[in-house]
């Protein structure tokens, strides 16, 4: 009896050592916004045909919460030859990576003998990527926030960070099955996380604030779970894009500056971008488009690779975010997008560099 109560005491310490109850985290499904909104995600678009885990796993409760501590974890411990180089060139921070993480991963594709297979039959394997892109070294706040694309940044583990959603637009952390470092590959083999991996150490500085754990594509830093004075943060403590401004160490100097934080609750990391980012970087770290998207692009007479929206929006004389919104989830239906923008289909096709439509 005595041992039992000690056990109960210990397990409650683990669960309530956090500000948030990890056994009853609010499910993020449906928290999709078209503008910056605290605790929600302003995603540029979701793919309604995208593949995700099927059914409702046992760790998702009927009251709209889920138990993170009961989630199935993909087994295995596979090491990878990670290549991850960050350098600074002028006012840019340049990344070169093969997306293999520095930590071990689970065995993918998930095998039928893995207990996780019952919940997620992810058939993808991890494959080497060749990614190279740059972000501003000293990012500044944009006049307006912009929507969070599918891929939002890179963690210091050497692998990419996607936003909080799975392909069809549900809470990926709650629904999808990942390994013990919270990573898994998507259809084209890109190993990625949907929250800050527990395999990236959440170091703390003397004041208790978390250290840097990664970079968002707009150049701002992503920090761990702890804010000023060592307070464990939740979405309520942060702004609509999941960040805040105070003094941090940046490029070796103390500066008052915006940054994002990890939280245990949805949307976990970047909810929208406070700085500006290049669509090209999103394209690079998203990896090659999955086969079903390529087929659909071909069927709709679109070029194989998504166009550079910066160039296209320049041609049309509109903002990149307005164009991104009008295009919606990939692949776009250009006649609908042209109507939304109030321009002709030909003009839009021309700006995007799409080949002329067959009659
Ligand atoms: Zn995923
Ligand atoms: Zn902070």
Low-confidence stretches: 4-16
Strand content: 15-25%
The whole-angstrom Rg is: 21 Å
Largest sheet: 8 strands, mixed
Number of strands: 13
Q: What structural class do helix, strand and pairing data support?
A: alpha+beta
* Tally of individual domains: 2
Distance between the termini: 80 Å
Compounds present? Answer: zinc ion
Estimated helix fraction = 10-25%
Strand order of the largest sheet: 8-9-7-6-10-11-13-12
Q: Indicate the overall shape.
A: globular
What is the mean pLDDT? 89
Give the SSE string.
Answer: HEEEEEEEHEEEEEEHHHHHH
Layout of helices and strands, plus pairs?
Blueprint: H1 2-15, E1 25-26, E2 65-66, E3 84-89, E4 92-97, E5 131-136, E6 151-155, E7 160-162, H2 172-175, E8 183-185, E9 191-193, E10 212-216, E11 221-223, E12 243-250, E13 253-261, H3 279-286, H4 291-299, H5 309-316, H6 320-327, H7 334-341, H8 345-352
Parallel strand pairs: 7-9, 11-13
Antiparallel strand pairs: 1-2, 3-4, 4-5, 6-7, 6-10, 8-9, 10-11, 12-13
The structure holds zinc ion (ZN) (2 copies).
One zinc ion (ZN) binds next to strand 12 and strand 13.
Short description:
With 359 residues, the protein is α+β, with helices and mostly antiparallel strands. It contains eight helices and 13 strands. One zinc ion is lined by residues 162, 166, 172, 176, 184, 186, 192, 194.
